[in-house]
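Handout for the seminar on molecular recognition.
Each group receives one record of this type.
Step one: identify the two inputs.
Step two: read the structure output and locate the region that could contact inosinic acid.
Step three: write two sentences on what you found, then compare them with the reference statements printed after the record.
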Amino acid sequence: MARAKPPKITRNTPKILIRSVAIKKRVQEVARQITRDFKGERVHLIGVLKGGCIFLSDLIREIDLETSLDFIAVSSYGKNKDSSGQVRLLKDLDSNIAGLNVILVEDILDTGLTLSYLLRVLRQRKPKALRVAALLDKPSRRRVNVTGDYIGFQIPDEFVIGYGLDYAERYRNLKDVCILDPGGTT
Ligand code: IMP
């Protein structure tokens, strides 16, 4: 019988930080917490494009409440790994959030600049509640004092890709969260 070839590890093979099975389990736990916190109420999930869309689509299907969703887009890092510190609204919400239980769904909290900008914008629109769900949190990188209410995983200061997170628009489709090749050639 022919032997399967062993997987070839190259410099660009991403190193797995969080496996898809662990992500799935944690997303279910976070959804259960949201379901408990908003028992009997409707929640309106706002996904922050583009990174938050995979997390949102898995999370919303695990929430056992009446739900609705919308998306917002802000400027991102482009091809660099470091934030410019400037946040710009690229796509606004489609509908009014006044009086709604809003859960902002982010891929990752890094410096916190994006979240702090979004919270300022959304608070002005008078939602009933405004909470933050983020799959990942890198607390050691924080430049402004913001925190998430529902955090999937706290991670060290590494640039990560996969499960919605990109590097120069690539790798969003990886099922696991991986550390980008430290050689930086990808
Ligand atoms: P912040 O404004 O610095 O908190 O960054 C928020 C945004 O930067 C996230 O929503 C991501 O799009 C992006 N980002 C931050 N860290 C990473 C990372 O490790 N990998 C990919 N994108 C990241």
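Reference statements: The chain has a mean pLDDT of 91. Residues 51, 76-77, 83, 106-115, 159-160, 165 surround inosinic acid (CB under 6 Å).
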